[in-house]
C-alpha cells in the first residue's frame, strides 16, 4: 500500500510521465496525411461557385443607371436600337 505524502500520490507522477512519453513517441513516429478524390474536388468547387452565385446580386445597378441615361437622350431611341434590342430578346428566347 502506498500512501500519499502531503496529499500527493507518487504513482500519479509516474503514470502521467508514461502517458506523456507515449504521446510524444506516437506523434514523432506517425505522420498525418489526407487525400482528396477528384470528385470531391469538383464538388467543393461547385459548392464554392454556387455560394458565389447566391451572393452575387441579380441586378446590376450600374448598368441600369447607364441605360436610363441613354434612354433620356431622344437621339438614342431609333430604329437601329429597337431592332438590336428585339433581336437580342428573340435570341434569348431561343427564337
Describe the SSE topology:
Layout: H1 10-29, H2 38-55, H3 61-72, H4 79-93
Primary descriptors:
95 residues, single chain, 4 helices, mainly alpha
Report what the structure shows.
This protein has 4 helices and no strands. It is mainly α and 95 residues long. The radius of gyration is 36 Å and the shape is elongated. The protein starts with 9 loop residues before the first helix and ends with a helix.
Low-confidence stretches: none
What is the C-alpha radius of gyration, as a whole number of Å?
A: 36 Å
In total, the number of strands is 0
Distance between the termini: 95 Å
Number of helices: 4
Shape descriptor reads: elongated
How would a crystallographer describe the biggest sheet?
A: none
Strand content: under 5%
What can be said about this structure in brief?
This protein is mainly alpha-helical and 95 residues long.
Amino acid at each position: 500500500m502506498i500512501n500519499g505524502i502531503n496529499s500527493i500520490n507518487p504513482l500519479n507522477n509516474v503514470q502521467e510521465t508514461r502517458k506523456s512519453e507515449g504521446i510524444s513517441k506516437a506523434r514523432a513516429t506517425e505522420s498525418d496525411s489526407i487525400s482528396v478524390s477528384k470528385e470531391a474536388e469538383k464538388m467543393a468547387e461547385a459548392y464554392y461557385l454556387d455560394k458565389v452565385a447566391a451572393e452575387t446580386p441579380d441586378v446590376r445597378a450600374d448598368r441600369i443607371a447607364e441605360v436610363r441615361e441613354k434612354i433620356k437622350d431622344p437621339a438614342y431611341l431609333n430604329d437601329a436600337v429597337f431592332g438590336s434590342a428585339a433581336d437580342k430578346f428573340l435570341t434569348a428566347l431561343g427564337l
